[in-house]
Amino acid sequence: LLTACNYIMHCILNDTCLPVNVEASVALLELLSDEDEEEEINAKVKALIGQHIQPIILKMLNLIRDTENDDVSNVIQRLIYIYEDEITAYSVEIMKHLSDTFLSLVKFCEENEDNEDAKDDKTLAAVGVLSTVESILSAMEGKLEVMGELEKLTLPIIYAIIQNGMMDFYEELFTLISDLTSKQISTDMWNVLYLLHDIFQND
Fold it and tell me: If you ran DSSP here, which 8-state letter would residue 169 be given?
């Protein structure tokens, strides 16, 4: 199993073929989701992946940007859950990637309103990105200093959804707002309240 894990990580980090990177990412999820293996083996796999967790997640973030594959988003969410403590130090970097990716997807949808098939694909990818954003916020919820930095990167996402009236993302929007106000409410988040009022009035 450890040999397979090493090979999968090699395919994620070093292979130059995007489909190989994506399939290897999904395979990594299978390794971490297999509850039938013995605890000792699982612990070794988790430890091995944990040694490379930063480059793995950063590579997967680039994969999401390049392929818009929501399966990779699911893998990152699982990694965030398992390696919560390890990712704290670079959670802001992860969020910056996710925010930029989401905003680029929104821009595409705005510029291609008449292309329904393309918009549907981008919408699905955007939902995966938003779910990953929520996973990070949930994992970092008790770390107020980090949450302050994450909030700054999440606000452009919130503004984009509200200002563009993107009803497909309202459920995720309210989840993000809940995550950002569960422990403390900043001035910026208070201002979001007025934007929400406009939503209820107009939509």
Answer: G
